[in-house]
Sequence to fold (460 residues):
Amino acid sequence: MKRVAAFLMCLTMLCLCGCRSGGSGESSGSGGSKSEAAVSEPAEQEPLRVFIDVEFGSNVFISVQEFLRDYETETAKGGKTKYKSFQTVIEDLGGLEDVEIEIPPKHGDERDTYLTALRTEMMAGKGPDVFVCLSGFGAHYFENNTGFCFEESLFRFPQQAMERNMFLPLDDHIEKAQFMEWDKLTPIIMEAGKNEHGQLLLPMTYTMPLGYYRSADVEYRLEDTSLTWDDMLSGGPETLLQAANISESHQSAALAPIADYEEDQLALTEEELLEYVTSRMDAGSRLGEMDLPECSNGLLHPNNWFDQENGASDELTLVPVFSRSGGYSAIITSFAGINVNTKRPDDAFFIVDYLMSKDAQQSRLYTHMTCGNAVPTMEGLMSGRGNGVSDGDGSNVYMSKNLYPEFVKLREGISGADFYTPLDRALYDMTLEIYNNPDKPLKDLVHKAYMNMSMELAES
Fold:
């Protein structure tokens, strides 16, 4: 467990700082007479504000500000490389010329103050027009290895924000989309951004805990997609290994469904959480009696080391983590949405539309969301060199010829999807506390975690 926790810590990164440029106050009138008002100049349109918060929890050690400045390359005269900014690319596509990018501070009190002020602004009916956000939590590491701190996203529970009508319904806009290919965005993933009001959020990336194996080393095959957590515990060493070594930060996949967001309460009992923890610990103790196949326990993402070493020469098998309710779920790690209070819905959708396109999903911006963490929602990407995703350094990353078909099979069997949230952080904290306090009663530690999770939901 200690090894897995260390591995997960390596899968987080610096939140590099950028600052919000400019306010968003509404224009006021001149206060003159009716005749003066009739001849006065129209109020200047405010810039379209695009909030981008994709660095906390990322594995990319280049700021998103730099990526957006040098967003796209082209060859200039003399063979020199010329860079285009994100805003220039939007203009060249026929879009608006007044995009204002807002990037929050990277950590600590400065970030907390910023996000608190932004939430207050949004409650007053203002705020950014477009949101591009990582979901869940991440870790910011300080300079000189002096420690780290966890950071959370603007929307701690995107599901609750959807229920509270914070986002603009996008269905009518999607029908007229210019850039995204809606039929190539994985339906089960996109469904998570929808409620009775329509499609409110557009998931950009997702992941799931799983294991990578050489097929010759294991008997398991991804054929029965209705297995349960209990089936994993009674299966072969490869499924038991996944149960015991599930990513500490993504345990909600095993407990799905974990919450009822309409009622703002947990969807599992304290007894069920204790049973899960106990069974996982038992699985870990049983592994010592088995001959275990070589594998990579981790997350679904485009550049797994096991695939790089074995995928070209060996058939590969993926083993997901099945949930207590049956099937296996995806965890959405980033999304785009539009402020329900935007005064420029068409311009805002132009940005969102582009961000869901193939070009955007292969761009440097997505590197912060995919590298070592997740895969994009557009189907067909990662299938080969021309369909690779950016590594942030000018190269494309894609799956091997033996992994990609297995990934497609895995994707087609997904039974549901949910957003990464502070509940995942609470489960991580619970696991760490159990590991660090072997002498404390397990029931008490689970009770503490369960109460913390309940309060997270009720107070958000």
Remarks:
- The chain is about 35% helix and 20% strand.
- The radius of gyration is 23 Å.
